[in-house]
């Protein structure tokens, strides 16, 4: 069973073709700069498929349809492709950032589902229009093949009202569905499931704190296998300190910037999303660059790391209070999987809550999942690599074989 996973953005399409008999990736690729003067497609065929490794095409890609056609042509190419034709693809799984309150689980695409995703566009204006383009094009290119949507928000639909409501006038929720939704749900659900397996316990008996630290960062409190709180809110801006996003700030900062700096709301929004976080504090948003700068004695880089780790620690502590009993803390994504310093600093001072790090394990460079807490630690700490494409392909397969 071959599943094509698509993450279609406003000007790019990421894709992976997976063989779900044995869960291996056959091809992954990226179509970039759709709608710009010059676009490109990078298509990577994985070892074992006996084909040329990387193909790159540079040309104008006016729209998503052209981009997707180029990708499909590469996948099915007689010489360089890995399948003979589109008919070998059993299903297409789409990542969709925002499902609003309508979607609690992956869903087969129908006309009603498309209408419901369109209705969530005001909640995710930067993401959902690109996803809808990808879905519509895939329906045209793969007629008769099941299309499944997997929402970043779905895992968090179990969060109770006392955790998802903002203390704002109630009409804003009633009329505009203004509330906390949470994102990265596919990743949090995937690593929670993997961690439960590693703990040898059913997921519905596990209390976990899942910590996704990449360019975007978020944390989730998982109680008996279900999300009960998460750090992202109405949008993926609330919560932790990220590469370029501020995370939590005093909401009065908006008024301060408007009154004292003459900034309009769009400029403030751009600043909080693109010019803040690590980049705002030290000018660098890539954690590897931050470490290199710290090694050169850059005080602002050290401060940026400290601010991020301190915010992580505060959230871990608050989720311990939310969960009462914690089986494990799980780190994932680019920083969470690779950065021993951020993990150590994020857990500093939590020994009194039963968190004891094994520094040898923490600093060892092991690919794959690894326990980094001491045997006696009452809260286990794990590093578990995330794999959102595999998670989407699994969900897609599951819904079609149910
Ligand atoms: P992601 O969004 O999951 O791709 O993660 C991107 C972030 O992970 C960037 O800040 C990278 O600098 C960081 N990252 C990736 N590899 C490493 C590494 N080996 N050590 C520290 N940070 C890393």
SSE topology:
Layout lengths: L1 E7 L4 E7 L4 E9 L6 E7 L8 E6 L4 H13 L12 E8 L10 E2 L2 H9 L8 H14 L4 E6 L9 H4 L6 H6 L8 H15 L8 E6 L3 E7 L2 E5 L21 H10 L3 H10 L2 H6 L4 H9 L3 H25 L4 E5 H6 L1 H8 L11 H4 L7 E2 L8 E4 L4 H14 L1
Parallel strand pairs: 1-6, 6-8, 9-12, 12-14
Antiparallel strand pairs: 1-2, 2-3, 3-4, 4-5, 7-8, 9-10, 10-11, 13-14
The site of adenosine monophosphate has 11 residues, from helix 10 and helix 12.
What is the gyration radius calculated from CA atoms? Answer: 22 Å
Average pLDDT reading: 96
Attached small molecules: adenosine monophosphate
How would you name the CATH homologous superfamily of the largest domain?
ATPase, nucleotide binding domain
Structural class: alpha/beta
**Number of helices, counting only DSSP H or I runs of 4 residues or more:** 15
Tell me about the biggest sheet?
8 strands, mixed
Query: Tally of extended strands?
Result: 14
Major sheet: order of its strands? Answer: 5-4-3-2-1-6-8-7
Task: Encode the helix/strand succession as letters.
Answer: EEEEEHEEHHEHHHEEEHHHHHEHHHEEH
From the 3D structure, determine the CATH topology of the largest domain. Answer: Nucleotidyltransferase, domain 5
**CATH class placement of the largest domain:** Alpha Beta
Overall domain count: 2
**Architecture of the largest domain, according to CATH?**
2-Layer Sandwich
Please estimate the helix content.
25-40%
Distance between the termini: 15 Å
Ranges with pLDDT <50 over ≥5 residues?
Answer: none
Q: Which range does the strand content fall in?
A: 15-25%
What would you call the quaternary organization?
single chain
Overall morphology: globular
């Amino acid at each position: 069973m071959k599943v094509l996973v698509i993450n279609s953005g406003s000007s790019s399409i990421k894709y992976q073709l997976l063989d779900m008999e044995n869960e291996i990736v056959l091809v992954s690729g990226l179509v970039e700069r759709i709608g710009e003067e010059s676009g490109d497609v990078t298509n990577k065929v994985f070892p074992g498929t006996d084909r040329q490794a990387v193909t790159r095409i540079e040309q104008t890609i006016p729209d998503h349809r052209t981009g997707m056609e180029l990708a499909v042509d590469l996948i099915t190419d007689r010489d360089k492709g890995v399948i003979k034709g589109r008919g070998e693809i059993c299903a297409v799984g789409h990542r969709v950032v925002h499902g609003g309150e309508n979607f609690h689980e992956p869903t087969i695409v129908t006309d009603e589902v498309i209408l419901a995703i369109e209705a969530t566009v005001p909640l995710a204006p930067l993401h959902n229009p690109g996803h809808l383009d990808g879905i519509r094009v895939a329906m045209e290119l793969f007629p008769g093949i099941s299309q499944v949507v997997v929402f970043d928000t779905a895992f968090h639909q179990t969060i109770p009202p006392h955790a998802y409501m903002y203390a704002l006038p109630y009409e804003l929720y009633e009329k505009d569905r203004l509330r906390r939704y949470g994102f990265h749900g596919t990743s949090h659900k995937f690593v929670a499931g993997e961690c439960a397996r590693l703990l040898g316990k059913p997921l519905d008996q596990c209390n976990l704190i899942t910590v996704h630290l990449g360019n975007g960062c978020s944390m989730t409190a998982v109680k008996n296998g279900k999300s009960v709180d998460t750090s992202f809110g109405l949008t993926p801006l609330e919560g932790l300190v990220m590469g370029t996003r501020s995370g939590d700030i005093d909401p009065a900062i908006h008024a301060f910037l408007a009154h004292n700096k003459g900034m309009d709301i769009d400029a403030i929004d751009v600043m909080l999303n693109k010019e803040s976080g690590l980049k705002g504090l030290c000018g660098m948003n890539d954690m590897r660059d931050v470490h290199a700068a710290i090694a050169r004695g850059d005080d602002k880089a050290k401060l940026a790391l400290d601010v991020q780790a301190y915010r992580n620690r505060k959230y871990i502590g608050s989720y311990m209070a939310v969960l009462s009993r914690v089986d494990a803390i799980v780190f994932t994504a680019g920083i969470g999987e690779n950065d021993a310093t951020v993990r150590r600093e994020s857990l500093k001072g939590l020994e009194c809550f039963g968190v004891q790090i094994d520094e040898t394990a923490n600093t060892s460079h092991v690919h794959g999942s690894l326990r980094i807490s001491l045997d006696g630690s009452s809260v286990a700490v794990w590093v578990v690599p995330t794999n959102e494409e595999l998670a989407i392909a699994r969900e897609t397969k599951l819904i079609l074989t149910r």
